[in-house]
């Protein structure tokens, strides 16, 4: 083997395949320590890293799961790996090369999210014992997470700087528009004429079948095109931040 491996290198590991053509054809691990019994017997203590689809299904219910067959979450990017505390000793002959990978910090700096590494990246850890992932920052009105493959919009207000999913901005605008146009059907019922009870969370949106929304950000300001399906009309509006009401530029 021509490659020289050292501590903290991240490597492709043969096992799933001997001669794969894609990165995800291989397992991935970080070298913690290299030990040689002889020039022909070199071993490494490694900590496994997981591709999102390799994660086991969690023990507790998770709304972000993509399928029932694994622990792959909706917010995982296509170039993302997850570090773990799962340790094993491997023969270095099982290594198929080094992985170009960086740690990614998604904290907003000067009003922008840092660029995602062009190579592979990791930002979460996985505990094999508890089957739990480390926490990620929460964003948006939905308290969801950031998928680096998908755009999000950051409020321009210096005191807010909340990041929003496009679909959540659309939902907020359509909900408000529906309540404006159909106030008689958007009012919560009261109990004994005084206290309002919270209705159970509905899966079907209140505006479904009546209003549709589409974001337009190619101009000077972020806009939404709202289509009234029944009336056949369209209108464009600027979008205020759902939290502080500052208009998006």
Report on the architecture of this protein.
With 249 residues, the protein is mainly beta. The chain folds into two domains: 10-135, Roll (SH3 type barrels), CATH 2.30.30.490; 151-186 and 205-249. The protein is 6% helix and 33% strand. The strands form four sheets. Strands 1, 2, 3, 4, 5, 6, 7 and 8 form an eight-stranded mixed sheet that branches. The radius of gyration is 24 Å and the shape is elongated. The model has no long low-confidence stretch (mean pLDDT 90).
Q: Could you give the distance between the termini? A: 55 Å
**Strand coverage percent:** 25-35%
In CATH terms, the superfamily of the largest domain is Bromo adjacent homology (BAH) domain
Helix content bin: under 10%
**Name of the level-1 CATH class of the largest domain:** Mainly Beta
The CATH topology name of the largest domain reads: SH3 type barrels
In CATH, the architecture of the largest domain is: Roll
**Main beta sheet, described?**
8 strands, mixed
Global Rg = 24 Å
Number of strands: 15
In DSSP terms, counting alpha (H) and pi (I) runs of 4 or more, how many helices? 1
Topology as a string of helices (H) and strands (E) = EEEEEEEEEEHEEEEE
What is the residue-mean pLDDT, rounded to a whole number? 90
Helix/sheet category = mainly beta
Domain module count: 2
